[in-house]
TrEMBL record:
The species this protein was found in: Streptomyces alanosinicus
Keyword check for Plastid: no
Keyword Transmembrane: yes
Pfam families linked: MFS_1
The organism's place on the tree of life at top rank: Bacteria
Sample GO molecular function, one term: transmembrane transporter activity
Record protein name field: MFS transporter
Keywords: Membrane, Transmembrane, Transmembrane helix
InterPro entries (UniProt xref): MFS, MFS_Cyanate_Porter, MFS_trans_sf
Ranges that cross the membrane: 24-49, 61-80, 92-109, 115-137, 149-170, 182-204, 225-247, 259-279, 291-310, 316-336, 357-374, 380-400
């Protein structure tokens, strides 16, 4: 998807902002929005067994609802730049938060397919914010991309962990799994209110009037660097979703208790929060991000080899390495504004990377599970994971070189 000469992320009612004009209110809005990008899905995962039993849902329903997040993230991401062109970037993000809040409240409605529809709507809303927040960071915090990306990534990780950890507690407190799922609308409403107040502080300008302006912008599908970045994002997304989706099961099958396996996954997610805060600004200050990309991939590689050879004996070591490795996600998000010259290209690259990456991430964890089911062991599945990590390593080096699409 590309922008033509009339494309803009602002409407005629918005005054062009100067670079690096973001203030405290906008930063709070970005952080609160990021905190809402995972609880809508991780809360469902945490209470899925309870919901399935209460609704009498089928195995097919469970398979579909677990595949929806990445599938919707990939497909709905394509609509984000169109929304930004039509109504402005501020209103597009605000509309996404509106839909997210309403879909969370909708989880109070009875019915398995009603919950399924709410999950689809939530993920579509999240996809819009996924694509457009990096554009806001590029425009409003031009000289502080790394620091703001770190805050954005850390609050996203914290929100995801909170959705998973707090939802069972909310169910116990409210005596209802529906209320526990709908309660996250309070957090979404908070972001909605702050974002509604950010309008005057956020206006993304039209494309520059230089030689590479809108009408002459080449398609990113003809850019080798754009494809390298897309491949890198896709590979690290597959690795991260396999780890988050299957790590407890792998440890359980190796003889570890279910409680301890879940504790290790929780540790992986918790350790990822401070690393997500610290890594983006450090990487952004570096002349090149290649060493960061390759180093993080090597951590995932070592952790994956450990899972293949001695899963239980070195479980906590592998967990630490994998937690370091999946910090590739905030690095990939940081690369989006670093590899583009203006907010228009940031939106285009963000759309290309996330739509393709999340669609591939839908296939990766599914293939991982199918290989386990077909062979009866995790060996072939882990070899497939190693292939994805090697691809991430190979693409990480050129993705990190200082240039633009």
């Amino acid at each position: 998807m590309t922008f033509n000469s009339s494309d803009t992320c602002a409407t005629t009612h918005e005054k062009p902002a100067t670079p690096a004009s973001g203030g405290v209110l906008l930063l709070v809005g970005i952080a609160l929005t990021a905190a809402n990008l995972r609880p809508a899905t991780t809360s469902v995962a945490a209470l899925l067994a309870t919901a399935r039993h209460a609704l009498g849902a089928s195995t097919t329903w469970v398979s579909l609802i677990t595949a929806m997040p990445t599938l919707c993230f990939g497909t709905a991401a394509i609509a984000a730049p169109w929304m930004a062109r039509r109504i402005g970037i501020h209103r597009a993000v605000w509309s996404g938060l509106t839909l997210l809040t309403l879909s969370l409240v909708g989880r109070l409605i009875d019915g398995a397919w009603s919950l399924f529809a709410d999950v689809v709507l939530s993920c579509a809303a999240i996809a819009v914010c996924n694509v457009l927040i990096p554009v806001v960071v590029k425009q409003a915090f031009l000289t502080k991309v790394g620091q703001v990306a770190g805050i954005y990534s850390a609050t996203m990780a914290a929100g995801g962990a909170a959705g998973s950890a707090a939802s069972p507690w909310l169910q116990s407190a409210f005596g209802s799994w529906r209320l526990a799922l709908a309660a996250w609308a309070v957090l979404s409403l908070g972001a909605w209110l702050v974002w509604a107040s950010c309008g005057p502080a956020l206006a993304v300008p039209r494309a520059s009037n230089g030689p590479d302006t809108a009408g002459r912008r080449r398609s990113l599908f003809r850019s080798g660097l754009a494809w390298i970045l897309t491949g890198y994002f896709a590979a690290q997304t597959v690795v991260a979703y396999v780890i988050m989706g299957w790590l407890p099961r792998m440890f359980s099958d190796a003889g570890m208790s279910t409680g301890q396996a879940g504790l290790i996954l929780g540790a992986v997610l918790l350790l990822n929060i401070p690393m997500s805060l610290l890594l983006p600004p450090a990487a952004a200050r570096s002349p090149s991000q290649s060493a960061w990309a390759v180093g993080l991939a090597c951590a995932s590689l070592a952790g994956s080899v450990g899972l293949l050879t001695a899963p239980v004996a070195g479980a906590w070591i592998w967990a630490l390495l994998l937690s370091i490795g999946i910090t590739s996600f905030p690095l990939a998000l940081t690369l989006v504004p670093l590899r583009t010259v203006d907010p228009v290209d940031t939106a285009r690259l963000s759309t290309m990377m996330q739509s393709t990456g999340y669609l591939l991430a839908t296939v990766g964890p599914l293939l991982f599970g199918l290989l386990r089911q077909a062979t009866g062991t995790w060996h072939l599945s882990l070899i497939a994971l190693l292939v994805a990590v090697v691809l991430q390593t190979v693409l990480g080096a050129p993705a990190g070189r200082p240039r633009t699409v």
